[in-house]
Amino acid sequence: MQVSKEEILHIAKLADLNLKDDEVQKYRENLEEILNYANIVNNAPIEGLEETISGDNTYNVFRKDEIKQTTTREELLQNAPEQQNGMFKIPKVIN
Amino acid sequence: MEIYELTVHELLEKLDKKEITKEEVLTSYQNRIEEKEKDVQAFITITDKEAKEQLKKIEEEENTSKLAGIPIGIKDNICTKGVKTTCASRMLENFVSPYDATVIEKINNERLISLGKLNMDEFAMGGSTEHSYFKKTKNPWNLNKVPGGSSGGSAAAVAAGLVPWALGSDTGGSVRQPAAFCGVVGLKPTYGLISRYGLVAFASSLDQIGTLTKDVEDAAILLNIIAGHDEKDTTSANREKIDYTKCLKNDVKGLKIGIPKQYFGDGINSEVKDAINEVIKQYEKMGATVEECSLDVADYALATYYIIACAEASSNLGRFDGIRYGYRTKDFSDLKDLYKNSRSEGFGEEVKRRIILGTYVLSSGYYDAYYKKAQQVRTLVKNEFENNFKKYDVILTPTSPNVAFDIGSKIDNPLEMYLSDVCTVPVNIAGLPAISIPCGVNSEGMPIGFQLIGNRFEETTILNAAYAYEKERKFRQNYKPEFKK
To answer: What is the predicted ipTM?
Structure first.
C-alpha cells in the first residue's frame, strides 16, 4: 500500500490540518504501515453480511418535541475564545 | 492498615460502625495525594478545596446517602460543571464544561466527593498515557513503566491509594488494560448500560464509561450508582435496574468458560500465558467447566477497530474549530486559516495521526475498501461472539499480551502500540461487557491481568465469576505496589 505526499496533503486539507514537511513524511509512513496491516479486513469472510453500525443496532429513538431550558446563553459562551454582544465572534467572511 | 488502603465497602463498614469518620477518610486520601502524587503524576486537576467544602455541606445534611463522603477520581474526559475538563489536550486546556455528565450527576446525588480529574492519553487515544499534553503518569509498581492507557491516571491513582476508586472510559480497552498494568479491577460495561452524555466523544459507537476499583465488590457498588437509562443519550438502554452487589455469590460451580485458542499463541508473553493458565486451573478447581473455543475473527477485529475508531474520531473531532470553545490560534488571516491553525496547534501528534487515518478511510475511493468492510467485519465479530455464548457463560483471555512496558519504549511505533490492544478491542466491537482482574505478577514484579467477557447485559455473570476468583486468590492481600524507582 503506497500513500503519496499529494494524498496526505489532500487528506490533511479535508481534515482542516496544516502539516509541516516532516509531519507529512512521518504520517505518510505511519499511514502506509497501518493500512498494510488493516488490509487484512479484505481477507475476512464477509460475503453477503450486513453492516453493523453499533453494539446495539437501535435505530430512531424518539422523544417528545418539547422545549427545555438546559444551559443559559452566558454558560454556553463562557468558553468562547472571542465573543461580542452575546455571540461567538469569528473573522470577517464576506469581503 | 491505613484508611487509603481500604476498599470502599470496607470504608462503608467502618463508617457504619463509627470506627472512622468521613473527615478522616478525606484527610487520609488528601495526605496520600500530598505524599505520592509527585511520583505518580496521576492528576491533571486536584480539587482539594472543593472537596473540603463539599464534605462540610454533606455533614450538615440529614438523611444523606449511605455512600456520602466517599472520595472518587474522575477521568478528565468526563464533563464536570465548574471544574476543568481538558481531555489531556492543549485544545481543551482551559475548558470548563457548562454542565455535568450524567454519571457526574449520579455520583453527586450519592454525595460522593471528587478529589480531582485524572490524566489520560489525549482524547483517550493511546494505551500508555504518554500522549497526554500535560504529563506522563507513572506506574505505581515501577515508576519507570507506563500505567497503561488511556485511563492511566485513573488506574494509577487507584493502585497508589490516591483515590479509593475512579471512573474511566473504554473505547478499545482503555479501562481494562490500565487496570491490568496497575493491578486493579477494571470493568467495561455493556454498550448502552451507562449514559455517555457528557463523556467527550472519541468513537461514539464504541465508547463506554467504566470503573477502576480495588476489588470486584467495589466495581458492583460503583456500577449500581452509574448504570441506568438516560434520555440525553439515545444509545442508552432502557432496562430494569439491577442491584449488582446481589450477584456476588462466590460460586462458579457449573459455570461454562470458553478459552479462545487465538489468545494463547505466539503473540502472548510466556509469563502472561503461564499466569492465565494458573487462573484456568483455579476455575476448574472451583467447579467451573473450561473448554477451548475459537475466535477466528480476533485478527480482523483489531484492524476493524482501528478503521472504525479513527473514522468516528475524525468526524467527532471536527467540532474543534476554535470558535465556540477550545484553543484558538493567534495566527490567522481568515476563517479557514483560523480553523486549520487552531486544530494543528491544539491537537497532539497521536490525535492528528488518527484524524488523518480516519479521514483517509472515509474519503472517496477508500470508503468501500475500508470503512464499509470494517462495518461488515463488525457483524462477523458479533456473530462469532453470539455463537460462543450459546455454549459458554463467559470467555476468558489475557487482558493484554504483555505487562506494563518502559516509558518511551513504544512511543515511536504506533502500530506496535495498537497491536497490544488485540485482546480487548473485540469486546467493544461487539458492545459486550468485560472485566479485568489482577492474577499475579511477573518476574519483575509487574502485575498481570486476565479478562472475563460476558454476553450483552450479563454483568452479573462476569462480576460473580471475577468475585469467586478474587476471594480465592486474594491478589490485593498478597501484592502491593512498591513505587520502585
So the answer is: 0.95
